[in-house]
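Q: What changes when coenzyme A is included in the input?
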Amino acid sequence: MKGYKRFAGSLIEEEEAFIQGIPLRMMQAGLPGGYGITLKGENRVIGSVDFNRRHGELGDIYEIGYVLHPDYWGQGIVPEAVKALCFVAFSLIPELYKIEIACHGSNLQSQAVAKKAGFTLEARLRGRDHVRGQREDELRFGLLRSEWEGVQKK
Ligand SMILES: CC(C)(COP(=O)(O)OP(=O)(O)OC[C@H]1O[C@@H](n2cnc3c(N)ncnc32)[C@H](O)[C@@H]1OP(=O)(O)O)[C@@H](O)C(=O)NCCC(=O)NCCS
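A: The predicted holo structure follows.
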């Protein structure tokens, strides 16, 4: 993804550092995995969707993160990938209670993904994040297993 100086408000170096840290964070938190996103029939990774944090006293609430190459934005690719990851996780991990997504207040693209994937906005933590010298609200979205199961039955 080199060549893009800014990436949805982030410096490309920050995104790279974040992505490189994902496997370590997953291992440390005992999280199940992450996936590269490819176009159907192509063997080229254009983005990723993964579990990047674990929450809750029982550790049964996972957080999803995602990123997509800007050439492919706006085609609904990541909402589809997030739904697929939710399907895999809720189907294969019986103890998984809930999945969350955290977005910066200014990241409307990420918030759109969360809503399209069926997540509910639960909280806006004002000024919780600090991004390159600027205070940012943190928005937290959630999808309960019961909600996900309800949608599967329809
Ligand atoms: C957030 C991201 C994964 C969205 O993926 P996507 O597959 O493009 O998602 P969608 O196609 O559903 O588009 C989401 C929103 O992005 C906006 N958008 C679409 N194309 C865009 C473009 N070329 N430029 C800017 N915004 C665009 C639209 O508002 C769209 O919502 P809408 O369809 O309701 O209008 C992608 O923008 C990205 O990788 N951003 C940088 C990394 C990031 O922010 N990750 C999330 C951290 S929490």
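Observations recorded in class: The radius of gyration is 15 Å.
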